[in-house]
Each structure stands twice: as C-alpha cells, then as structure tokens.
UniProtKB/TrEMBL annotation:
The lineage of its organism: Eukaryota, Viridiplantae, Streptophyta, Embryophyta, Tracheophyta. Signal peptide: none annotated. InterPro entries: Znf_GRF (IPR010666). Keywords: Coiled coil, Membrane, Metal-binding, Transmembrane, Transmembrane helix, Zinc, Zinc-finger. Residues 76-117 form a coiled coil. It comes from Solanum commersonii (Commerson's wild potato). This is GRF-type domain-containing protein. Residues 14-56 form the GRF-type domain. It comes from the Eukaryota.
Length: 145
C-alpha cells in the first residue's frame, strides 16, 4: 500500500498504548503534511511515535503543487489576504471614527451656543419681568399716597 492511499480512518496505537492523534505538520520542511502522532510528546514522557499520512512534497508532482498554490489553496497567501482585508477595514473604521469625532465636536459647540443663547434670553425675560414689577409697585405706591 503506498503512502498516498493510507486509510486515515484506521487509527494507529503508539508504543505508549494511546490512540494516536491525527496532526498537521507546521515545520518548514513539511508544511501542511498530516501524520499520526503519539498523544504525549517525547519531552512529556511519550514514545515519540509518528507515521506520515500524506506523501512528502519531494514525491509530489511539481505541477500539481504549483496549481494548488496558484488556485489560492496556499494557507499563507489566504492569511496574508485576510490580514490585508482586516487592515483595510480597520483603516476605514478609524477614518469613520475620526469623522464622527469631528461631527461630535461641532455638535457639542453648537449645543453650548444654543444653551448660552437660551440662558441669555432667560436673563432678558427676567429683566423685563423685574422692570414691569417695579413699575407696578411704583404705580401702586403712588396711588396709595
């Protein structure tokens, strides 16, 4: 049986007696290659058992690999595109935030002006009322005397 036709539904049992986990290599030499590996690492007392499921990149057809990467199946390129999209979205949101902060400052300034205008009109009205009451008081006083 060749390595390319390995049945991954049959789970390996390592020398420690554990069912092996299906893992994916993240090393530069074997990026994305799948393998069965011992549940515990060698550093944690495991046996270090592993068996490749996917064929090595050296044995793979170069044209099929190129097609895979050109078609956008390269996870690094997909992640780079996603990062670029997220950075563009972040920049757009920052721009919108700055615009909204400027609008908020203008509205706060207008609100202060409206409050000052209202307060000034209240003062003017209070002066008119006081003058009117003073005139009534004077008229009343002179009518009595």
């Amino acid at each position: 049986m060749s390595q390319s036709s390995v049945n991954i539904e049959e789970v390996d049992v390592c020398k420690c007696g554990y069912y092996c986990q299906l893992k994916t290599s993240r090393t530069p030499l074997n990026p994305g290659r799948r393998f069965f590996g011992c549940k515990a690492s060698k550093e944690n007392g495991g046996c270090g058992y592993f068996r490749w499921i996917d064929p090595s990149l050296e044995k793979a057809d170069e044209s099929s690999l190129m097609n895979r990467f050109i078609d956008g199946h390269n996870p690094i390129d997909r992640l780079k595109r996603k990062v670029k999209e997220l950075e563009e979205e972040r920049d757009s949101l920052k721009f919108q935030l700055n615009e909204n902060e400027e609008k908020m400052m203008v509205l706060n300034k207008k609100l202060k002006e409206v409050k000052l205008q209202r307060d000034w009109e209240n003062v003017k009205f209070n002066r008119v009322v006081i003058v009117f009451l003073c005139l009534l008081t004077i008229k009343w006083f002179f009518n009595i005397v």
